[in-house]
Amino acid sequence: MFTKQKILQTKYLLQQQLGHTSAGHQTWLAKDLNTNEKVTIKLLAFSSQMHSKELKLFQREAQILQSLKHPRIPKYRDYFTLNRQLDNGVIWFALVQDYIPGFSLQELLEQHQLFDEEKIRTIAKEILEILIYLHELNPPVLHRDLKPSNLILGEDEQIYLIDFGAVQIQTTVSGTTFTVVGTAGYAPLEQFWGRAVPASDLYALGITLIHLLTGISPANLPYQDSRVQFRHLVNLKPDLINWLEIITELSVEKRFPNAKIALEALSSDQDIDTSTSKESPNQKSLNLKPEKSLIELNQEQRRLNIKIPAGGLARFNEIFNAGCRGLIFYFVLFSLSLLISIFIPYIGLCLISFVFIYIVLLCGTKTEISFESNSFQIKRKFLIKKYGKQSCPNSIIVDIFIQRTGSIFQVNIRTTNHTYNLGGALSQDEAIWLVQEIKQWLVDS
């Protein structure tokens, strides 16, 4: 449908296609015939087969861009809908912005351009200034897709932030957003849980800078304990390395809380201490146990003991992702088993036994984990009976990560040959806290 020299809305002359996606997006370089200025037109094809979320995100992008006024964000110009008759009944929505001549940082990476420490500091400061503007709006605006392809190094040698297709106004409910979007590798864990905050954009910035420094995409960077490992890949001053480690922390509480504080830390001549013995940049205790948590954690000399309570009803409710309907299902199944046992005793009793044992074990199994200097041990406990004892040397631990099922979270230990699930039905805060505690003990031991 769209070709070079085609005119849209009697004023926009298409000159060159800049990009397209399988999701129905096209981006064109065009000329505004009224002003003779170059513009960028972003197009979205919308049909009955497309999910409405795509259109909502596109409309939100246009709405928010219209309210933004920053010299490093391409200016909003126009928004319109194209006639159905132009493309066999398909509706096209169009967003027009200023065109920024230059190259994206992704294009420069693909051209094998090197970014030295001085250039990285300059890029970081310019992006942080843009994020300060966005995050200090009322309500804050979160970009949620900061990455090299969305950063343009203009002909004026300034950095511009583009593509607000994943943009979100932070809701009044602290720490939550409505739509889960982002690019894997650059987006932090909490963003994929629908809990993006200003520090989520900072994480994406940190990963982007590491990509620029190393030339290695996030998917190919080495990770240990869910944390990107880059020290051995760069030659930087210690303060910048420590700054990058803080901004890319897995736990959002451990990162800089906002862009202004991150910029102040980057501009400071003082070295940043990342040790956990000091208060985090968020001015919050990193190892503060969540309120009402029933997890028992005790540190002895050269030993860490953890007791995780049973998952309770929350565990099997989540199997069906249906709240109390999970309990109703089991009640109906148990009742049917009783009915069957009247006519077919053997099968009925087997079903009853299976349901009963499964529910009891799921609800009543506790986990005890003990770490020593060289190994860890896991024991399952039902009432007073211990079973399922497992042990493994610490030297083959690869990662400690969080697994989510519905609204419950669990901590897993991945080794070179096995993954150990620590059970329970934890909250997000409990899981993050527990991961931090285990990791820190292993580092210190």
UniProtKB/TrEMBL annotation:
Q: Tell me one GO molecular function of this protein.
A: ATP binding
SUPFAM superfamilies, alphabetically? Protein kinase-like (PK-like) (SSF56112)
Q: Keywords of this protein's UniProt record, alphabetized?
A: ATP-binding, Kinase, Membrane, Nucleotide-binding, Serine/threonine-protein kinase, Transferase, Transmembrane, Transmembrane helix
Per UniProt, residues of the Protein kinase domain are: 12-266
Keyword S-adenosyl-L-methionine in record? no
Pfam families per the record? Pkinase
The name on file for this protein is Serine/threonine protein kinase
The organism named in the record is Stanieria cyanosphaera (strain ATCC 29371 / PCC 7437)
